[in-house]
């Protein structure tokens, strides 16, 4: 993992727990797997605890780690480092994505509630109009009651968001997810629909689909044009879900957007999105940061504890499951 990930995720308490569970040599962490020192450590490693910045675990790396039994990821997506070779060799892979989902859900719920009132955009307007409060009339209906939220992706995060919204009993919730069980969607209090059906009804469109080839630019010019005039697009998932040039044009024409992720990330300095008062940009902060990130390392350590005690993992990943999730 990167040095910053180690510093953020493995404080004294986590390191003490790690040393109590396993034999740990020095260096405790590496950010590359090609140097003689890294290869020396790989030769005896039974478990890798990985996080942000882990190099790809390809056949060459795995050949240098003949005793490797498990890759326990102390973050969310493993797509950047877990290769087919890992599954080919029967190595256990786990993820702390469930722990990472919680702050994203909380951030997104806050974004949805503020979007109902157009609060972030009115805050931008206040800098221009100041004491002339007539600007409050320029952002459409400012209410959450009886509105419609469209959640794209009944994922770890999407499904949690649906349940929280239904607990508040404010909005009608539609879910777009072609692989989700419709019964599970209904049980959560939402209605399963197609994207084409959902978009014209969306007061708020919140994206929670994984970044897969088939989801790339799933929200393009036609989809953005189908949204109601005062709709708000929220993206806390992956920037690649949205066609950026189409989004720039739609926002220039009045679409509201709250974007924690973009494509590219960060946006180039000349992107028109920076200057638009109907666009809020945050620097990919919805996921785990600071003390939140230690919940993910704690989950990886719990997986290590279960492994040493011969108990099944809590959050295993398979080759097949990676075709459906980030």
Structure explained in plain terms:
Strand 8 (232-235), helix 12 and strand 9 form a beta-alpha-beta unit. The chain is elongated. Helix 6 packs antiparallel against helix 13. Helices cover 37% and strands 12% of the residues. The longest helix has 21 residues, at 97-117. It has a seven-stranded parallel β-sheet. It has helices at residues 3-9, 12-21, 36-44, 59-63, 84-88, 97-117, 119-129, 156-168, 182-187, 195-198, 221-225, 244-252, 293-308, and strands at 47-50, 70-73, 92-94, 148-152, 172-176, 191-192, 204-207, 232-235, 256-259, 279-281, 316-317. It is an alpha/beta fold. The protein has 13 helices and eleven strands.
Q: How is this fold's topology laid out?
A:
Blueprint: H1 3-9, H2 12-21, H3 36-44, E1 47-50, H4 59-63, E2 70-73, H5 84-88, E3 92-94, H6 97-117, H7 119-129, E4 148-152, H8 156-168, E5 172-176, H9 182-187, E6 191-192, H10 195-198, E7 204-207, H11 221-225, E8 232-235, H12 244-252, E9 256-259, E10 279-281, H13 293-308, E11 316-317
Parallel strand pairs: 1-2, 2-3, 4-5, 4-7, 5-6, 7-8, 8-9, 9-10
Antiparallel strand pairs: 3-11
Helix pairs in contact: 2-13, 6-8, 6-13
């Amino acid at each position: 993992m990167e040095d910053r990930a180690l510093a953020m995720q493995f404080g004294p308490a986590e390191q003490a727990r790690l040393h109590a569970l396993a034999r740990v040599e020095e260096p405790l962490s590496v950010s590359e797997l090609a140097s003689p020192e890294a290869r020396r450590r790989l030769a005896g490693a039974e478990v890798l605890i990985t996080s942000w910045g882990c190099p790809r675990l390809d056949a060459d790396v795995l050949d240098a780690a003949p005793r490797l039994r498990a890759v326990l990821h102390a973050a969310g997506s493993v797509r950047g480092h877990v290769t087919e070779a890992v599954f080919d060799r029967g190595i256990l892979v786990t993820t702390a994505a469930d722990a990472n989902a919680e702050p994203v859900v909380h951030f997104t719920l806050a974004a949805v509630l503020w979007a109902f009132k157009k609060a972030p955009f009115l805050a931008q307007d206040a800098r221009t109009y100041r004491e002339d409060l007539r600007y409050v009339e320029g952002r459409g209906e400012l209410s959450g009651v009886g509105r419609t939220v469209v959640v794209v992706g009944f994922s770890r995060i999407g499904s949690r968001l649906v349940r929280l919204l239904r607990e508040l009993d404010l909005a009608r919730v539609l879910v777009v997810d072609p692989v989700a069980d419709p019964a599970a969607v209904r049980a959560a209090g939402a209605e399963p629909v197609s994207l084409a059906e959902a978009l014209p009804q969306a007061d708020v469109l919140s994206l929670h689909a994984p970044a897969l080839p088939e989801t790339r630019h799933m929200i393009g010019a036609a989809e953005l044009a189908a949204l109601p005039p005062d709709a708000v697009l929220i993206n806390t998932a992956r920037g690649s879900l949205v066609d950026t040039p189409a989004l720039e044009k739609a926002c220039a024409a009045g679409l509201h957007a709250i974007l924690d992720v973009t494509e590219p990330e960060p946006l180039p300095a000349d992107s028109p999105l920076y200057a638009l008062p109907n666009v809020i940009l945050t620097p990919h902060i919805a996921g785990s940061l600071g003390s939140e990130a230690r919940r993910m390392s704690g989950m990886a350590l719990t997986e290590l504890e279960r492994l040493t005690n011969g108990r099944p993992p809590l959050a295993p990943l398979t080759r097949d499951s990676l075709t459906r999730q980030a």
